[in-house]
Write a structure and sequence with these properties.
single chain; 485 residues; alpha/beta; Four Helix Bundle (Hemerythrin (Met), subunit A); Rossmann fold; 434 Repressor (Amino-terminal Domain); 3 domains; 8-stranded mixed β-sheet; 21 helices
Length: 485
């Protein structure tokens, strides 16, 4: 989403790197470029004016650090100001002392409320909570059935019109929402997520219904779901909803799209409420807390190591990863291990997104379109092998290669290339692994060193106390260097 803006910032800062110091004229030129870049990214013009004013004040008025060159100082200031307009700190979700904690979702039709209700339920489950989904969207056809389907996928119960068996009228979304809270208490559920109806545009009926649902449920959090692809319309929607509901934050969807990203950079400044969660894909796992500092770093080409680590932790089991690394270093890594690791990496998301999170990645590589189909062909080749062939690739002769190629829909040359690359990797890692000290070799080296020191100490005629006098028992000696201990 922010690729075009990142490229513009990269060009601006590249021109600064060769300058010894910045004059006011240089600062004005840089700020003019930044202003144009933000406006082209569809950032609200009031937000752009405010942001550029703060950057100019800091660039001209602040004392600049001698250890940083002008480009680094401007990048640092822009980075801090981007974090500020994105919301500053990541929102912290606190839970009600008397369960359940009620979360109300509002938004226009098509913004993704129902899907994000299930994503949010999955996120709460990861926090060790027991959520319940309440379908209060009784207007859109099949909305309740969609919520039930998603609820089954994340293993979270859904209640809606079936609450008529408890009492009340199932056709009234306000009554359904109220009874949903009672049902959560009866079932011992500590989080309730209420999915409300939307409209194609804001109208009095929509606002009145959402307001009445909020009155009977008394939500601890009210989140507005907005589509990042709608640009400044998303900000306008947030303003109108905030006039009726006391919003606590925004859930921004489709951050993986190809829109210009102006909504993400405008909503906090215009509405005064932070982006609480971000949806970055269609899968139910593509959802997490919104981290302003991480997104600001990615916009400026600094990468996003923390998100990369979080995704790796979620996709990989630590013990399995260590065992795979050990087999790789010993040259015992098989095609079965390779297939398993490749499937784990795919769980982390599209490779193009992962590459963009790596700090220092060149712009040309960061913007390269990665063909996920190549991975699919490799996977197909490996799956066309027998279990014995995966463990012992040397068994694969000409006739087996032909069978594997036919079974995977590839050519024998592609099978040959994969086998050759795999053998080269095994050889390289085996050579590299042989140079790495193991715990056993470390123990032997330490034992020999201790024995040698003991024998040297036992020799007669040598000095056995440090120069300057005897050392008393229990005294501590310190290694001192000028200015350091």
């Amino acid at each position: 989403m922010f690729d075009a803006l990142s490229d513009r910032f990269d060009g601006i800062f590249k021109r600064l790197r060769g300058r010894g110091r910045l004059s006011e004229a240089d600062v004005d030129e840089v700020l003019r470029e930044i202003r144009l870049a933000l406006l082209e990214a569809d950032v609200n013009f009031k937000v752009v004016r405010s942001l550029v004013g703060r950057i100019r004040e800091r660039c001209v008025g602040a004392e600049l650090h001698e250890a940083l060159n002008p480009a680094q100082q401007v990048v640092d200031i822009v980075h801090q100001e981007l974090i500020a307009i994105l919301g500053g700190d990541t929102i912290r979700i606190t839970f009600a002392p008397r369960p359940p904690t009620v979360v109300l979702l509002a938004g226009l039709q098509g913004s993704g409320k129902t899907t994000n209700a299930a994503k949010l339920a999955r996120w709460f489950k990861q926090q060790g909570r027991n959520p319940l989904l309440v379908g209060a969207d009784l207007q859109r056809p099949a909305a309740i059935e969609q919520l039930r389907t998603l609820g089954r996928q994340v293993d979270v119960p859904v209640v809606s019109k079936d609450l008529t068996s408890i009492g009340g009228e199932g056709g009234d979304p306000v009554e359904v929402a109220r009874l949903g809270i009672d049902e959560a208490r009866r079932l011992g559920r500590d989080v309730v997520i209420v999915d409300t109806a939307g409209r194609l545009s804001i109208d009095a009926e929509l606002m009145d219904q959402v307001r009445r649902i909020a009155e009977v449920t008394e939500p601890h959090y009210t989140f507005l779901v907005v589509d990042a692809m709608t640009g400044q319309d998303a900000v306008t929607t947030a303003e109108n909803f905030h006039a009726t509901l006391a919003l606590d934050g925004v859930i921004l969807t489709k951050l993986d799209g190809d829109a210009r990203g102006g909504a993400a950079l405008s909503v906090k400044e215009v509405v005064g409420k932070p982006i609480a969660f971000a949806s970055t894909g269609e899968k139910l796992g593509d959802f997490d807390l919104f981290h302003p500092d991480r997104l600001a770093g990615r916009i400026l080409g600094m990468g996003d190591v923390l998100t990369l680590i979080d995704r790796a932790k979620e996709a990989f089991e630590e013990e399995e990863a260590e065992a795979a690394a050990a087999k790789l270093m010993e040259g015992q890594f098989t095609f079965e291990d390779f297939l398993e690791q490749m499937q784990q990496v795919k769980k982390m998301g599209p490779l193009g997104n992962l590459i963009g999170m790596i700090p220092g990645m060149p712009k040309e590589l960061r913007n390269t379109e990665i063909d996920e189909g190549e991975l699919g062909r490799v996977e197909a080749i490996i799956k066309s092998m027998t279990p014995q062939e995966r463990r012992q690739p040397d068994l694969i002769d000409g006739s087996r290669r032909l069978r594997i190629a036919d079974g995977s829909g590839t050519s024998t040359s592609e099978v040959n290339a994969l086998l050759q690359q795999f053998r080269e990797m095994q050889k390289m890692m085996k050579r590299f692994g042989g140079t790495m000290p193991t715990a056993k070799t470390n123990a032997n080296v330490n034992a020999k060193a201790k024995a040698k020191a003991k024998a040297k100490k036992a020799k007669k005629g040598g000095r056995v106390t440090p120069k300057g006098g005897p050392v008393t028992a229990g005294a501590k000696t310190e290694l001192k260097l000028p200015g350091l201990k």
